[in-house]
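Weekly sync notes, structure subgroup
Attendees: PM, AL, DS (notes)

Item 1: joint prediction request from the bench team. They want all two components modeled as one assembly rather than separately. Inputs as received:
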Amino acid sequence: MKKKIDLLPYFLVSPLIVFIIFLALTPAFFTTIAAFFKVQPLNPPTHFSGLQNFRDIFSSAEVVSSFGNTLLYILIGVTLSTILGIFFAVVLQRKFKGRSILIAVLILPWALPGVVEGILWTGIWDANTGVLNSVLKSLHVISHYQVFLGQNKFLTILAIEVVQVWQITPLSAILILAVLQNIPDDLYEAATIDGSNSRKSFRHITMPLIRPGIAIAVVQAIIATLNIFDQPYILNGAASTANSLAMETYAVSFTNLNFGQGYALSLLITIFTLFVSVVVAKFIYKKVEY
Amino acid sequence: MMNKNRGFRKFGVGFILFWSLIPIYWVINTSFQTDAQISDVPSHLIPPTPGWANYKALLIGNGELQGMIRRSTINIFIECISATVITVVLASLASYAFARMEFKGRKFLLFIVVMTMAFPTYTTLIPMYRIMAMVHLVNTYLGIILCYVSGFLPLATWILYTYMQSLPSAIEEAGSVDGASRMQIFRLIVLPLTIPAIASTAVITFLFAWAQFIFPLVLASDQSTQPLTVIVAAIQGRHVVPYSLLSTAGVIALSVPAVIALLTNRFIVSGLINGSVK
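Output from the run, pasted for the record:
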């Protein structure tokens, strides 16, 4: 008896597969190949150029400084969002009145577009009208209004990254909270009976057991910060003080119309993202047993 | 010790409220002030003479600015709703096959879906633009919608797949005894049971689509298809537009996702957890 191939499942997944092939795999393949070609619409022809694009981007001062800037964005963003994420998750660990409303408020910043967040925080950081200046002056911390954005490089990056942290921390908190809620209560009760206090319990029970949640939160924070674009685009504009890799990729491709270099940069970002995600996940993510 | 814990929670709750709401409160506050009031030192913690002047200036009238805001608001709704509907429909079909059927290549295809979820935006940005330019879909709704759907389908499929997989297998058996076809089982039994996950997927997809900036910036170079986010950034870039109007545009652009997030936060949270924990 001949077995007939069941076509229905293939029929059901085919639209998804078509989308993935044409609008994800093909572009990814294209990026990988074209990174080794000279692709400049205003300066044809397109031809194979080996590692020239990579040499060019590494000899461009802007690109090189954007590597450093992006590293700072990642470092600040991952650290702050993880610490705040753990803090928020621990606050929300146990049920209390108003907890579900608090969760709704918590995820609000995650739901807003990065562009709009840039506008929101302009009102806070601004050198002439910002509320932070007003508050600091009223408290006599500063004697006159300060410039937070665009002057000092580190301060600019910090101020911009805080805006992104505001956006990505809710997701970190939710991911960590999901793991936190799986920790059985009797573990804490047993520890209390054994004379543990809440700080000790946090260190010896909570922290080791929420590792998988932290791992996922860190990975998503790395991917988000590595790709930061909207916030610096709005808050710092074309000024190159705090340019991120993503902004540099955009500028190289769509302002300079040097697509070859854009592909090369995109390829580096992609490889770096995949590499870091795997390494971090392996390093922090260990199966926990209760 | 009990007291210390309560103190910690009070501090934590206060901190979360302050951290999440102050920037939003502040932009709403400035949207009800004149530019002179915004420039006052110290800043006004509440609007001294609240009124709808800024909102009227942005929304009512036939000026260029008003036209841009109105056009881009219509655009963003068209693009987000279309992308959400297509994504949810295609993702539920695919996830039904992945979750409830056995077929050759199933594991491999699922692996591909998960792998594409890990692609950073920039892997596909430039080639996506060039593909769309090649097929003349730059500056069209279709180009933007196709781009969104391709970006959100993998995650949507994953969320629905994990959910459908958790449904008990007895449901199909009951259906097949009654002689229902697999598509009937899908429509009449599986789909209704999956509604919570479908809601999560739809809300998350819509919010992601609403937040898009760099893809529509690249794929829509003229105002006929540019969504609100791109227009807000454009008027921010023109230094002639004062912060009073800019913050008002910000409030308009955040009102829709903010209301959705507040109303559907349960679905968002469960969707995010299903989508990320692999």
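Discussion: The two ends of chain A are 51 Å apart (CA to CA).
Action: AL to compare against the crosslinking data before next sync.
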